[in-house]
Amino acid sequence: MADGHWNDRRDDGQAATVAVLDVGKTNVKLNAVTASGAILETLSIPNPVLSDRPWRHHDLHTLGGWVFDTLAGLARRHPVSTFVSSGHGSGGVLVGPDPDAGDGTALPMIDYEQALPEDIRRQYAPLSGSFFDRGSAMMHGATHHARQMFWMQQAQPEGFSQARWFLGVPQYWAWRLSGVAVSEATVLGAQSHLWNVAERHWSPIVHSQGWRDLLPPFARAWEAIGTIRPVLAGRYGLPPGIKVLAGIHDSSANFYRYQAAGFNEATVVSTGTWIVALSGKTPLARLDEHRGMTCNSDVDGNPVGGALTMGGREFSHVAGDGDHLNADAAVVSRMIAQGTMALPSFGDDDGLFPGSAGKGYIAGPQPADAAERKALAVLYTALLTVECLDALGSSGRVILDGSFLRDPLYAGLVAALRPKGDTVSNLDTYGVASGTALLASHGTRPARAAIALEKPPVFDHPSADLASYARRWRVLAAQATQSNRLYERSSQ
Prior knowledge:
The protein is α/β, with parallel strands linked by helices. The chain has helices spanning 60-77, 118-124, 131-134, 145-155, 157-161, 169-178, 185-188, 204-208, 230-236, 250-260, 311-319, 329-338, 370-392, 408-417, 431-438, 463-491; strands at 17-23, 27-34, 39-46, 49-50, 57-58, 80-87, 92-95, 165-168, 195-196, 201-202, 224-227, 243-245, 248-249, 267-271, 275-279, 293-297, 303-309, 341-343, 361-363, 397-402, 422-425.
């Protein structure tokens, strides 16, 4: 940026490139991306987790070496001018004052999928505030930032007392590179239980537990908070002067990409480990914490209605060893005709169906082989997606993207399940990286970001049969939820 105007060239005249670190729960990717969001190169590594005490935790020391070495290599092949990170919303890091002290942490970064100690779970619940204070229902494991902080504080008070900041994953990497600590709205708005997005203030637990001084000042996701620290540049051979942006929540980055393209009225569905549907048009009064609904934040801090379920995990449970196959339309049609249904929920998260976690089952004739399991898994995740959209009241344009689109039948089934809506898809599987890179030109782009949207292939099974199947599926899913609630009441 020069004199407030768009500039996609570095000072040396070369086309500027954005280095985007995308930290997922399972894998970490480092991307070289053009200022307009086109992917030039991607390198990846599994996100390492250690089982050592005091809890299962991410190996940030190993990951840090990979990030800095790989960033240096990327900068030798591309004219990198900016670094920015995205990350999953359930990752938080308690750090000390020095980013060069090992991996910088005061206590190890909790792997959010592990179960909480029962006493921590019980003590935490009454402290967490209202739905809007939390932004979500209580989710599984150690999902929420505030719950992680509470666990750390109770289990390791000495280590906790030596901490300087608590940072979301994107802001942790921004701090490691720049030495500057910030908070950011989309990360805190991703069910952290620390920030009330609707009312724009800290949640009560922040004050009751004395955490306010651990949460640094806010910066916008697109703001340059500093440059790469000279000591880090010298150690790894990184170019000096690379700008470091504050960073963003991964699904919010994907949502931002469509905002940058002018699709402000659309509901965006990101698919991967989670199915995440986001809409800036859903009234806050419609949000129901008991149905997997959330109050997220966009890059400007405005509330965004969300509905999410751990669709990737559900898919894996149903698909089994059929995961590598493409779903066949004739096999999907057979599943529909014979009434074979996957009913929620197979994983540890209730999603849209309260009390369903771990109680998923397959009704009707069982899948006979891998092809039938894969067909059923695709059909099931399409139904879950439409359930998210219905929860948000999304009757207009819906944009699908993410890893589920690798199977063409997924988008076709979603479109067939909502015949009165406009369903389109984006086959680019790098939406998070593209959206994150677009932060570097926020407010200075001369035109809307370009995105290629496609109509899904038509699913040719008679729509009345699919509609009847979907109605039956909803009835059975609702019955299972009611049964779970009755059982829980009788057990109390």
